[in-house]
């Protein structure tokens, strides 16, 4: 009885095997589609051995062009048969991707296992036939032979789909993988360039928009690397955080956050205008990450709570839409929509994958492509925005410069007015002292002389000498107060320091040249202050002043052999010091150059000003 039942089961199994259409392979076959040749069985027990599956396998046709079983948590056995009609042995490769755990068994027509192979995302890349994101299983077929290929597919917390799921000749398969790896390299290389750009922008400009731009790039790149198993390039054994898909969950939930933060900066959204919207967005972000932290703390898988996070992501996307509508039709809003619309559509397609059942691998390929387009457009937008900001800054700086120019012009006008006023007042005082007081003293001296004749017994000589001395002093003071148009910069400095032996002057091409009296007075005051500083603080034994004129440049060199000083410390401690004021006068008022070099062996000061001769 038992043997009869076993024979009957074997007969039924053999019937099912024969009922499934075989894939015809010739020596010239390079690639063959398996659509219409696939059958599957669900392993509800999750741990059935291959020998048991062969006995109970009840083939159900795969209705898609590739295995696609939605979000099923159970392993699925997929089977197809190959009939090789060639004259020489041939090696074939089954290529697929995106499967956490893949077991492949090759049997002959009598179900004897010829080859078994385990691979998938939970196995290191180095254990694969080819170290790439693609899963390959190669096997040899002999002339005029039939083979059955059984694959056990299992995904954790993710859609169970295998695309591509194609049979290649071994050479054609390697070529296909090389081409796909080239596309991956283009994506990774492009993202690396964007990443370097984002790091440079964030480092040099320290603005929030560049940090959010960098966050978008990092999330997109990490999603690609994790999904395509590049994590094994960095880890000997993948952390559970990656294996249970929580890493993908956190990254997927973080992308809308960075989009929102980037949009606020890119669209220049005012927090005051959108205060409630801004507060709602921050509450949603905090709730989202709090929920993720709690779930992961209790060792839960985020993908089991997808509807909850879809709500958070939907709210953030809606807030983004509110910002865009408020800023529409500004160029920034249009550009942001143009950049993010393709990738948004791709994300929506993946979100509603249970409806359309498109292969998740194709959706991810579209995500990579649209991400590149998005970042390219947003980078162009950032460059455009940066250019606008720089132009605005330039205009602002230009306006400030013009304002400063006007301010300095007015200051110079005021100084000139004050200088001319003081000049007139000094000349008037000098005239009054010389004419009025001098005449009065001369008359007093004359009266004393008359009195001396009338009263010779009185000593009048002391009084006459005092009056003579007072007269001479008043005359000297009046001469000093009077501004003489014939006094040059050279003569003023020589007369002022003729009694100080350590000050040595040298003049070149200044004998017959005159400048604006106001400028000469300013230069005389500056040079005098610098000499005074050296005399007071430098403890020097000599001060050399060289003044030369090579039209239109007037060069002034002041050098001493004193002890010098720390210029940076001095200017930092005394922001309103004489040196700071002198530098401001030279560089801003006179549009000249002011240089100081100070050390233990002395101080050298160089002043260069462009001046044209001024006929008096």
Quick overview of this protein structure:
With 616 residues, the chain is α+β, with helices and mostly antiparallel strands. It has 16 helices and 16 strands.
Describe the structure.
55% of the residues lie in helices and 17% in strands. By secondary structure, the protein is α+β, with helices and mostly antiparallel strands. The chain has three domains: 2-170, Immunoglobulin-like, CATH 2.60.40; 180-388, Rhopdopsin 7-helix transmembrane proteins; 487-610, Heat Shock Protein 90 (2-Layer Sandwich). The strands form three sheets. Strands 1, 3, 4, 5, 7, 8 and 10 form a seven-stranded mixed β-sheet that branches. It has a five-stranded mixed β-sheet with strand order 12-13-14-16-15, covered by helices on one side. Strands 2-11-6-9 form a four-stranded antiparallel β-sheet, with helices on one face. A hairpin with a 2-residue loop joins strand 15 (593-599) and strand 16. InterPro entries: 7TMR_DISM_rcpt_extracell_dom1 (IPR011623), 7TMR_DISM_rcpt_extracell_dom2 (IPR011622), HATPase_C_sf (IPR036890), HATPase_dom (IPR003594), Sensor_HK_TwoCompSys (IPR050482). It is an enzyme of class 2 (transferase). It comes from Runella salmonicolor.
Q: What's the layout of helices and strands?
A:
Layout lengths: L1 H18 L2 E4 L5 E2 L6 E4 L7 H7 L3 E2 L14 E9 L5 E8 L3 E8 L4 E7 L14 E8 L3 E10 L11 E4 H36 L2 H20 L12 H4 L2 H21 L8 H23 L8 H22 L3 H21 L1 H4 L3 H95 L6 H21 L7 H8 L6 E6 L8 H22 L4 E8 L2 E8 L6 H7 L4 H12 L3 E7 L2 E9 L6
Parallel strand pairs: 1-5, 12-13
Antiparallel strand pairs: 2-11, 3-4, 3-5, 5-10, 6-9, 6-11, 7-8, 7-10, 13-14, 14-16, 15-16
Helix pairs in contact: 3-4, 3-11, 4-6, 6-7, 6-8, 7-8, 8-9, 9-11, 11-12
């Amino acid at each position: 009885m038992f043997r009869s039942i076993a024979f009957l089961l074997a007969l039924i199994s053999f019937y099912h095997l024969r009922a499934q259409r075989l894939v015809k392979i010739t020596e010239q076959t390079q690639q063959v589609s398996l659509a219409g040749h696939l059958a599957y069985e669900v392993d509800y027990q999750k741990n059935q051995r291959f020998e048991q599956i062969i006995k109970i396998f009840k083939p159900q046709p795969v209705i898609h062009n590739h295995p696609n079983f939605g979000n099923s948590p159970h392993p699925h056995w997929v089977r197809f048969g190959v009939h090789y009609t060639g004259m020489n042995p041939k090696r074939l490769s089954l290529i697929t991707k995106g499967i956490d755990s893949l077991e492949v068994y090759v049997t002959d027509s009598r179900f004897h296992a010829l080859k078994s192979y385990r691979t998938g995302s939970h196995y290191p890349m180095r254990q694969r036939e080819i170290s790439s994101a693609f899963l390959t299983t190669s096997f040899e077929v002999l002339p005029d032979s039939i083979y059955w290929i059984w694959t056990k597919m299992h995904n954790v917390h993710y859609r169970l789909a295998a695309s591509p799921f194609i049979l290649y000749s071994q050479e054609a398969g390697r070529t296909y993988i090389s081409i796909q790896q080239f596309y991956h390299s283009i994506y990774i290389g492009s993202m690396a360039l964007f990443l370097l750009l984002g790091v440079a922008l964030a480092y040099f400009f320290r603005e929030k928009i560049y940090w959010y731009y960098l966050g978008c790039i990092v999330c997109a790149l990490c999603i690609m690397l994790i999904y395509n198993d590049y994590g094994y390039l960095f880890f000997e054994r993948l952390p559970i955080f990656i294996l249970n898909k929580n890493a993908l969950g956190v990254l997927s939930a973080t992308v809308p956050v960075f989009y929102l933060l980037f949009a606020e900066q890119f669209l220049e959204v005012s927090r005051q205008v959108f205060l409630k919207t801004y507060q709602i967005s921050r509450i949603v972000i905090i709730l989202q990450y709090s929920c993720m932290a709690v779930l992961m703390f209790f060792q839960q898988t985020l993908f089991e709570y997808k509807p909850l996070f879809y709500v958070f992501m939907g709210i953030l996307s809606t807030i983004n839409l509110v910002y865009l509508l408020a800023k529409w039709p500004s160029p920034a809003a249009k550009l942001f929509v143009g950049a993010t619309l393709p990738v948004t559509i791709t994300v929506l397609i993946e979100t509603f994958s249970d409806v359309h059942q498109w292969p998740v691998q194709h959706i991810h390929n579209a995500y990579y492509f649209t991400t590149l387009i998005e970042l390219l457009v947003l980078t162009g937008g950032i460059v455009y925005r940066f250019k606008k900001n720089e132009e605005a800054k330039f205009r602002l700086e230009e306006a400030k410069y013009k304002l400063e120019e006007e301010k300095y012009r007015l200051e110079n006008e005021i100084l000139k007015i004050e200088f001319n006023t003081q000049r007139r007042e000094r000349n008037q005082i000098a005239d009054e002292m010389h004419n009025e007081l001098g005449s009065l003293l001369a008359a007093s001296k004359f009266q004393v002389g008359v009195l001396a004749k009338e009263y010779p017994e009185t000593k009048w000589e002391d009084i006459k000498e005092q009056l003579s001395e007072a007269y001479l002093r008043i005359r000297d003071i009046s001469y000093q107060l009077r501004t003489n148009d014939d006094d040059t910069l050279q003569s003023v400095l020589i007369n002022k320091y003729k009694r100080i032996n350590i000050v040595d002057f040298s003049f070149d091409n200044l004998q017959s040249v005159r400048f604006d009296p106001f400028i000469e007075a300013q230069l005389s005051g500056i040079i005098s202050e610098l000499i005074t500083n050296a005399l007071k603080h430098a403890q020097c034994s000599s001060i050399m002043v060289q003044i030369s004129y090579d039209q239109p440049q007037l060069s002034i060199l002041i050098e001493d052999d004193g002890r010098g000083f720390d210029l940076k410390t001095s200017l930092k401690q005394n922001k309103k010091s004489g040196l700071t004021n002198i530098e401001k006068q030279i560089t801003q008022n006179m549009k000249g150059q002011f240089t100081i070099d100070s050390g233990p062996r002395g101080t050298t000061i160089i002043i260069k000003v462009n001046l044209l001769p001024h006929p008096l």
